[in-house]
Design goal:
The chain is an alpha/beta fold and 299 residues long. 47% of the residues lie in helices and 19% in strands. The chain starts with a helix and ends with a helix.
Amino acid sequence: MTLKQFEAFYWAATCASFAVAAERLHLSVSSLSKRIAELESSLGQPLFDRRSYRAGLTAAGSALLPRAQDLLERAEAMHHVLLGDAHLQGRLRFGVGELASQTWLPGMMATAAQRHPCLHLEPVVDTGAQMEQRLEDGELDFAVVAGSSPRDALLSRFIGHAGFDWVAAPGMEEVAEPSGALAAWPLVTMPQGAGTHRMLDEWLARTGHVVRRRVTCNTWGAVAGLLAEGLGVGFLPQGWARPLLARGSLRALADWPALSPLNYAFQVRRDDGRAVLASVRGLLAQTVDFALPIRFLSQ
């Protein structure tokens, strides 16, 4: 029996499919299956019931799973004790949203490459709901998502927050009071599944204002463009808003009640106790900054 066989078994048992497990181990499905078959042969009994479309664990497989996880975590911990954070290695695929990809992500990737040249990070840009599903399915190792996850399988820890400013186009008719503006103009914003939806709901409940019409788009670049063209009023992340305000492309609605900051969480699967994830969370705690200006807007 080998560590790689137990690794193949563990990820096949905890990912959504053998294909997902094979991808994260950078194996073909046939190679993954071969390692599992070798482990089953050594143990003398099957670990997966392959009679259905999605193979499920046998009683022996269910009994072995926590022990396999403990074995893998102990092996990683031994490596960590001997070599420390300076020698982090492996490949981690993680999820971030559009705002993270345009603010702190490039700097974090550069810092990680300098400090940990043997650690290969693969960012995936997606929506919060999709990232949580992919994390639970085993496609991602961790994600930075707005808010805490309601999923029992995921663990959320605060990692940072983003601020937002109310803005409108300079040429729009001056309407200082929010109720009048929201009655006269649509709210240009992200769609309902975005993390900012909860932030907006909190603002509406706190202020008593009502949104009568909405124009939605799923990227901040498009929202900023629609606002600059005068298609409505809305809010932008400060990294987007501040450069556009400085250019005169937008004007601030400074008298409007402020939006609460949007908290972001470092999310992992609750059953994933790998030491490398704690080290990466420490790196993120040092580099996550949603207030950084969007680089191409600031040049």
